[in-house]
Amino acid sequence: MGKFFGNLHLVLVTGLVLAIVVMLKYGASAPVDANSILRWLHIFFGIVWIGLLYYLNFVQVPTMPAIPAEQKGAITGHIAPKVFFFFRYGALLTVLTGLSIAFINGYGHQALTFSGEGNVDLIGLGMWLALIMAFNVWFIIWPAQKKILGIVEATAEEKAAAAPRALYASRTNTLLSLPMLYAMVSANLG
C-alpha cells in the first residue's frame, strides 16, 4: 500500500483508469465526447491552478516571514519552483481547455465580445477574468518569482522590486477568482 501511495504517477494513472471505467459505465447517461472530456480537463486544470493560487495566498506567502532564515532555502529552492511550474501550466491549460469548450460549442466569439445575452455574456465575463488572471501568472508573477527565487540572476534591488509586483498580481488574481468562479459556475451553458 505504501509503495502505491508513495508513487504520485502511479496514483494519477490509476485515477485516470478509474475515470475511464466510470465513463464507460455511465456513458449512456453522460455521453463521452470531446466536449465532456474538455469540460472534465478544464475543471481538473482549474482546480490545480486556483488551488495553488489559494495555497500561495492563504498559506505560503503569509507563513514565509515566520520561517527561520536557515529553513527558507528549502521552500524557495525546492517547493516554490515546483509550485510555480504547476501553477503556470494549470493556468495555461485551464484557459486553453475553456476556450476550446466555448468555441466547440459555438459561443466563444459571442462570449468574448459580449454580443450574446445572459448566460453567454456571463461566461464571457468569466473568460475575460480568467484571461487577465492567466496574463498575470505568465507575465507578471512568474517573471518576478524567477528573480525572487534566484532562477534568473537579479540584484538585491531587483528582487526587492519584484516582490511587491508578484504579491499585487497574485492578490489581484485572488480577488478576480471569486467573480470568475461565480461566472463560470453560474452560466450553465450545457
Attribute tags:
mainly alpha; 2 domains; 82% helix; 190 residues
Describe the structure.
This protein has 190 residues and is mainly alpha-helical. It folds into two domains: 31 residues; 155 residues. The protein is 82% helix and 0% strand. It contains seven helices and no strands. α3 packs antiparallel against α4 and α3 packs across α7. The longest helix has 36 residues. The relative contact order is 0.10.
List the helices and strands and how they pair.
Elements (H helix, E strand, L loop, with lengths): L1 H4 L2 H18 L8 H30 L5 H36 L3 H6 L5 H30 L7 H32 L3
Helix pairs in contact: 3-4, 3-7, 4-6, 6-7
The helix tally amounts to 7
Oligomeric form: single chain
User: What order do the SSEs take from the amino end to the carboxyl end, as H and E?
Assistant: HHHHHHH
- Catalogue the unreliable spans: none
- Largest sheet: number of strands, sense, barrel closure: none
The average pLDDT value, as a whole number, equals 95
Q: How helix-rich are the residues, as a percent range?
A: over 70%
Instruction: Note the overall shape.
Output: flat
Number of individual domains: 2
Secondary-structure content class: mainly alpha
Question: What distance separates the N and C termini?
Answer: 40 Å
Task: Please count the beta strands (DSSP E, at least 2 residues each).
Answer: 0
Strand fraction: under 5%
Radius of gyration: 19 Å
Sum this structure up briefly.
This protein is mostly helical and 190 residues long. The chain is built from seven helices and no strands.
